[in-house]
Design goal:
- The chain is mainly α and about 140 residues long.
- It has one domain.
- Helix 1 runs antiparallel to helix 3 (about 65-75) and helix 3 packs antiparallel against helix 4 (about 75-105).
- The longest helix has 30 residues, at about 75-105.
- It has helices at about 30-50, 60-65, 65-75, 75-105, 110-130.
- The N and C termini lie far apart (about 50 Å).
Length: about 140
């Protein structure tokens, strides 16, 4: 009899790691998480733009499709893009909180909001540059 202890951390339900009917295939879950972060960042940026008095343009397809394109690219591009998105969230979250705090006290922080908006746009464009040339989402039939 084997005396190796069984760790619940190692236990997986039957079929774990396999694509399930109706579920995303391998690797697509993290793209979904990246998609949610990407969308939340743009929602926060829209709020910053409103405080700054700047009209946030609608997302063009290249921006909207970024999470899928970078997932398909994989490798170092994907890893670096995910890190950059996390870094951008680390900038936007406290920045937006500070702007909202000032705004709630009756101060209109236009200059700070405009600076955060411009920083967001520059950082987002740098992240978009990680997409491979001609990057567009793969179509799966």
């Amino acid at each position: 009899m084997d005396a190796t202890p069984i760790s619940k951390a190692d236990a997986r339900p039957p079929g774990a790691g396999q694509a399930r009917a109706g579920g995303p295939p391998f690797g697509h879950g993290s793209a979904s998480a990246l998609s949610m972060k990407w969308s939340a960042l743009h929602d926060a940026a829209a709020a910053v733009a409103a405080i700054a008095g700047v009209e946030a343009p609608p997302m063009p397809p290249a921006v909207r499709n970024f999470p899928v394109v970078i997932r398909d690219a994989g490798g170092w591009r994907r890893a670096l893009a995910e890190q950059h998105v996390d870094d951008l969230a680390a900038i936007m979250e406290p920045g937006l909180a500070a702007l909202l705090s000032a705004y709630s006290r009756g101060v209109t922080p236009l200059a700070a909001a405009r600076a955060l908006w411009e920083e967001f746009v520059r950082a987002r464009d740098a992240v978009l540059a990680l997409c491979p040339p001609g990057g567009s989402p793969r179509r799966v039939a």
